[in-house]
Specification:
two-stranded antiparallel sheet; 6 helices; Rossmann fold
C-alpha cells in the first residue's frame, strides 16, 4: 500500500536497546539505499525508546508510541528490520514487539533482514533466527540479508566499503521487483485472509 501522496513508505525497525546504536545505523543506511531509486519516504523506529510503552500482555494495554509504531510497521510498503545478536538470537524487545503485530498484517510485505554482532561468528543470525520469524508472518523476505560486525563501524557510523557494497547489492538485486507491477501487486496482500490478530497470550 502506498501513502496518500503516492510515495512508497519504507519503515526501518531497530531492535537495539542502545543509543547510539550500530544496528540503528545499519537499518537507517539500508532503508535509505532502498529508498533512493524508489523515491520513497523513510521512517526509523528505535525499539529501545519504546520499552515502557511496550509493557503489557495485550495490544490494548500498550502506550500510544508503541501502538503508533505497530501501525507504521503494519502499513509499510517495505520493512527493513535489524537486531544486534544477543545470546545467538535477536533481542527480547525485537521479538516482543513483533509478537504484537497482527498475524496476517505482513503477508507479502517485502522485508530486508539485517543484523549486527561483535564478530562474524554471529552472521547466521539472519538466516537461522530472523528469516523463520518472518516466514511465520508469510512476509516476502528478500534474498540477500545484511550482517555487520563491530569492525564495520567507527563512532557508530558505517566505515567499511565492503558493508556499503553489500547494502547496495541487496538493493540492486531486489529494487526491480519492488518497483515493478509485480511489486505493487503483492501489496494487495491479505484481501482474502482472516482478520488480523493481535498478541494476547493466555499461556
Amino acid at each position: 500500500m502506498t501513502h496518500a501522496e503516492g510515495t512508497i513508505h519504507i519503515v526501518g525497525v531497530s531492535g537495539s536497546l542502545s543509543v547510539p546504536s550500530r544496528t540503528t545505523a545499519l537499518v537507517a543506511a539500508t532503508a535509505r539505499e532502498f529508498a533512493k531509486p524508489l523515491g520513497a519516504s523513510v521512517e526509523i523506529i528505535e525499539l529501545g525508546s519504546l520499552v515502557h510503552d511496550l509493557a503489557g500482555a495485550h495490544r490494548g494495554e500498550l502506550g500510544p508510541a508503541a501502538v503508533a509504531a505497530l501501525n507504521a510497521v503494519e502499513n509499510a510498503d517495505v520493512l527493513v528490520v535489524g537486531s544486534p545478536a544477543y545470546r545467538a538470537a535477536y533481542t527480547g524487545i525485537f521479538k516482543h514487539f513483533f509478537d504484537f503485530v497482527g498475524q496476517y498484517a505482513l503477508v507479502d510485505t517485502p522485508i530486508v533482514l539485517t543484523a549486527t554482532g561483535g564478530s562474524e561468528r554471529h552472521a547466521l543470525l539472519v538466516e537461522h533466527q530472523m528469516r523463520p520469524l518472518f516466514g511465520f508472518f508469510q512476509a516476502l523476505t528478500l534474498p540477500l540479508g545484511i550482517y555487520a560486525s563491530e569492525s564495520d563501524f567507527e563512532n557508530y557510523e558505517i566505515t567499511s566499503p565492503e558493508l556499503t557494497e553489500r547494502i547496495a547489492l541487496s538493493a540492486q538485486r531486489t529494487i526491480g521487483l519492488l518497483a515493478s507491477p509485480l511489486g505493487a501487486a503483492v501489496r494487495t496482500r491479505g484481501a482474502s485472509l482472516p482478520e488480523r490478530s493481535v498478541y494476547a497470550s493466555g499461556f
